[in-house]
Amino acid sequence: MTWVLTILGIVMLVILHELGHFTAAKLVGMRVERFSLFFPPTLAKVKRGETEYAIGALPFGGYVKITGMNPEELGDLHPDVSRRAYYNQPTWKRVVVILAGPAVNILIAFVIFAGILLVGNLNGAVVLSNLSGKSTTQITDKVAGVKTGTPAAQALRKGDRIVSVEGGRATPEGVVEATRHHRCAGKQTDGCVATTPVRLTVERNGHIVALSIYPRYNAKEGRALMGFEFGGKATPVGLGGATTGALAAMWGTLKETVSGLGRALTSEKARGEVHSVIGITEYAQESVAAGAGFGLVFLGFFSLALAILNLFPFLPLDGGHIVWSLAEKVRGKRISIGAMYRYSSVGIILMLFLVINGFSNDIGHLGG
Question: Integer distance in angstroms from the first to the last C-alpha of the chain?
Answer without folding.
Answer: 24
